[in-house]
Each structure stands twice: as structure tokens, then as C-alpha cells.
Amino acid sequence: MPGIDDIDAMNAFLADQFPELEQSLGGYTVVELSPGHLTARLDAGSRHLRPGGTVSGPTLFAIADVTQWLAILTQIGPKALTVTTNLNINFLRKPQPGALLGKGSVLKLGKRLAVTEISILSEADGEAVAHATATYSIPQT
User: Which CATH superfamily, name and number, covers 7-137?
Assistant: First the structure.
């Protein structure tokens, strides 16, 4: 099955298959993709902040998980039931409110599992605020 190779199609797939993401995260958008790679943007505002005024860990985790999942779909197509089996995240510095970019890549794609990584960057200065690796189970359909 060919992967999803169009930004508008990927954003439409996400809205259709995961509508609650807009309520929980709000403002997450795919901005660039190619086979095995995907970049998404989130304008982190007041709803994404923790006490102290920095972007919360759960927000960064959500960016990491969704972006890596979608990077896999650029290769395998619209298999919505591809699920996270493991995700490890390192928080590198305090992210300030504003635009964040998640740059996800597929490191290894097998028949049943995919291994991915992501760097989450502050768009303002290009500095990494988090890095994560993950493994996803691919449904056999």
C-alpha cells in the first residue's frame, strides 16, 4: 500500500481519524512530508503551558507521538490502527510559548514494527527542546 504523500491528505486523515486531537492539543498541523519523514508545527499557547510558563511535558509527548505515527504512515499508508508500543522522550531545555516544530523520521520499517525518532525544535531559534524514539506496532491487514 502506498504511503500518504500529500500534506492536505495527511491533515485530512488526521482530522478524520483522530478528531479529539484538535480538542486536546489544538493547532497541530503537518507542514512537510516525504517518505519516512514528517514535520509538524504546533503554536504552543496558554493552553499548552505548565506552571512557570513553559510548554508542558504532556504537550511535547503528544507532538512526539503523533508526528512519529504520521511519519510511518508516509510509508505504509492510512493504517490508523498502527499503535505506539514504546516511546522514550528526553526533555532538553525549557520550551517557551510559541511555534514548535516536530521533525520525525522512520529509522526502521519492518512488517510488524516500525522504529522512529523525532527532534522537537523551537521555531524561534531552531534549538532542540526534546528528542524521542519510539516503536510502533503495524496491523497485519
Answer: Hotdog Thioesterase (3.10.129.10)
